[in-house]
Amino acid sequence: MFTGLIRSIGRVRRIQGGGSKSLLTLSHNFKRIPRKGDSIAVNGVCLTVCAADAMNFSAECYYATLAKSNLKNLRSGDRVHMEPALRMGDALDGHFVQGHVNRTVKVLSLKRADGGAVLRMARPEPDDGALIPEGAVALNGVSLTVSALDAASFAVQLIGETLSDSLLGHLRAGDEVNLETDMLLRGRHTAGINENKTARDKNPSGLTKEKLMQWGYV
Predict the structure, then answer these.
(1) How far apart are the first and last CA of the chain?
(2) Distance of CA 83 to the CA centre of its chain
(3) What is the DSSP letter of 33?
(4) Tens of pLDDT, residues 170-187
């Protein structure tokens, strides 16, 4: 589990393999040296440490992770967001982030104003019901709040601190960004679908006494 607060900006040192599996070696500046088996979110994707030292760690990515995320686009020298997994007693200052990216979305625009910026993204289809105004999302692992939403796009506001502590201010139109929607909202949406399905199963026709009365049959 993560918070969506970036703790380190790392750099891709080496990429081995390709196709359905890649081994990433990345630099870090964590105070605590990662250990084998630790979970670290890289651009919002939860990865398991295979090996590590005071300066670098390695993690494997398989086809499912590569297909859903922008990690497949990484090249040696690229910078990435990093966050180690929450530990007991850590403050939860962002929102609950699993590191399970739903899909990637395209950047439409980044407009700076008054020391901050508005980042607009293409709205995914389907969006699993978890994109709502003021709802939480993680973009490349950064915890953000949806500030605007329409049929084709959604926007988030980036304060100056977010711009200075992350790489989001370097995004350009067309860039591919990892999206994880809020798991609590996804759960509510799924529950709503199940409730509607149960109601349809009990009454497939959708007819009710109220509808029949409205139409003059009762």
Answers:
(1) 55
(2) 13
(3) P
(4) 999 999 999 999 876 654
